[in-house]
Backbone:
């Protein structure tokens, strides 16, 4: 029990100009509970103390050692597929950054975020980049599928840029045969950029951009 609890309760009552009985009635606490807490013979829950402080126009706060106020973690932070918050002490990461964990779970919906349990790896990462202030928060347009599609488009652009650079380096210019890539969006879904170009079954051209 905090040694200051009695003094805090007396400060609250003095500021609010209330007797023990009156403060107890205002906050739904028994007069005997308040009297015992003020006498230092029992503790008082933080929610009850916060309610009493509010009566006097005060509020409870969590402070750093240097006096700065500490805020709670973001209520919209990462959750698993059942809606449970991820462990507060662990650092979150996008599940598509550790895709091997989900490659054999096609019967389950892939969550946006996961966390690692390797303390040594976590300590090394925090030593390099510092401890994240909070968990990741889901952002519209940043789901695992959308992030995967962006990587696929980036891989396609990189291959196309490399092809054009090779053509620019040739001492001659190939004739324009009038061919235009007609790959549908479905090709982006099957081609992850990890090897030779792959095409969807409905692709009309099957061009090789590698």
Residues:
């Amino acid at each position: 029990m905090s040694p200051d609890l009695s003094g805090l309760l007396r400060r609250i009552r003095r500021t609010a100009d209330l007797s023990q009985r009156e403060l107890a009635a205002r906050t739904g606490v028994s007069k005997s509970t308040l009297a015992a807490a003020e006498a230092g013979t029992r503790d008082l829950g933080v929610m009850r103390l916060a309610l009493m402080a509010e009566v006097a126009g005060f509020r409870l706060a969590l402070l750093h050692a240097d006096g700065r106020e500490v805020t709670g973690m973001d209520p919209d932070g990462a959750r698993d597929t059942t809606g449970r918050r991820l462990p507060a002490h662990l650092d979150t990461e996008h599940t598509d950054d550790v895709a091997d964990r989900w490659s054999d779970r096609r019967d389950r919906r892939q969550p946006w975020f996961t966390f690692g349990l390797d303390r040594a790896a976590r300590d090394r990462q925090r030593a390099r980049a510092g401890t994240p202030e909070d968990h990741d928060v889901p952002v519209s347009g940043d789901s695992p599928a959308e992030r995967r599609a962006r990587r696929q488009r980036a891989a396609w652009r990189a291959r196309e840029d490399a092809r054009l650079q090779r053509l620019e380096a040739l001492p001659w210019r190939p004739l324009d045969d009038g061919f235009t890539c007609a790959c549908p969006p479905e090709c982006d879904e099957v081609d992850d950029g990890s090897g030779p170009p792959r095409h969807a079954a409905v692709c009309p051209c099957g061009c090789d951009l590698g």
User: Anything to note?
Assistant: The chain has three domains: 5-60, 75-138, 143-210.
